[in-house]
Amino acid sequence: xxxxxxxxxxxxxxxxxxxxxxxxxxxxxxxxxxxxxxxxxxxxxxxxxxxxxxxxxxxxxxxxxxxxxxxxxxxxxxxxxxxxxxxxxxxxxxxxxxxxxxxxxxxxxxxxxxxxxxxxxxxxxxxxxxxxxxxxxxxxxxxxxxxxxxxxxxxxxxxxxxxxxxxxxxxxxxxxxxxxxxxxxxxxxxxxxxxxxxxxxxxxxxxxxxxxxxxxxxxxxxxxxxxxxxxxxxxxxxxxxxxxxxxxxxxxxxxxxxxxxxxxxxxxxxxxxxxxxxxxxxxxxxxxxxxxxxxxxxxxxxxxxxxxxxxxxxxxxxxxxxxxxxxxxxxxxxxxxxxxxxxxxxxxxxxxxxxxxxxxxxxxxxxxxxxxxxxxxxxxxxxxxxxxxxxxxxxxxxxxxxxxxxxxxxxxxxxxxxxxxxxxxxxxxxxxxxxxxxxxxxxx
Length: 444
Description:
Helix content is 28%, strand content 22%. By secondary structure, the protein is of the alpha/beta class. Strands 1, 2, 3, 4, 5, 15, 18, 19 and 20 form a nine-stranded mixed sheet that branches. Belongs to the metallo-dependent hydrolases superfamily. DHOase family. Class I DHOase subfamily.
């Protein structure tokens, strides 16, 4: 492994901002301090720019295997690294669904060969694979994923007896997609009768409404409390659900945690008129009044993590009529820029961004030596220029699908360098694919 010396950086880490140099060797941070002068293979003068821990995105859909016309682990990991995301946790609703240990191992093998970012993969739960779920090693796999509402891939777990057993026996964290299927089906029938083929994405938050989210999230919390399960509820999208979550204990002591995704903080239902199916996703982007309440819950620590739920589809798939167009939007290249824009708008501090995108995912999932800039930790680092504007445009989108709902947005900051496990993977628009990322491990 090469050595890297970063000089003159403003380090944002563990609630403070301070000037420092960082020396990285053999994949790890060896020394932090002022005036470091060790010889190094690569010397980066940060020139006062911000240095952050690498972003850890705990929820992405990279589509491989089986859906590689949409994306691959290779293509989307590159997009992640370009956006300062150094580690990802990927979902099991690929084709075939990851419902056996063998299929899970195949994903890890693909990533070991092709992923520029660090990686982990969720084991999928279904109505009939509990025995396979229970074989999952908590030290080498990020978690068990349960779809308590059907989404892309149709991995719905709707057998209450099975849910009880998974929550009772799970050896590790369970991450849930919470939308009540019966509510969604009833709403779908109602709006199909009302609108027929004339329906547009504007009705999506009515079809997949607040009631569907709250009913399912409440059930998940009830089961977790009953069985003392380590539960993490993904992509909270409504103000209605926020009372389910606690901010009276530190994150490391919580048994029930929750995340919010960047698109539920950035967009609201008024944006369907402009973007239509491009922002159709599950759970739906809701009415405008939810957004400030999600922000408040993020700031007061009822919501623990910021993620993306990156879920690419082809442009042609998204151009279909509303009922046929798939749900999901590509986001993993831009979450840090979105949140840095929120910093510039005064919505939160730079320290809070790092807490929610770097420290909290590491603590929530108990990741081994990542998420913080500390001596002895893996060197996952991102340099941010607070004066370099970044316009999202076709020519700089790294997603295989080639489009973003953020096209035309000009962010007030730029990501200049991304270091993944001690490897300078991205610098000033150029990738270095000669070294792949590392598998994440967990201290449980």
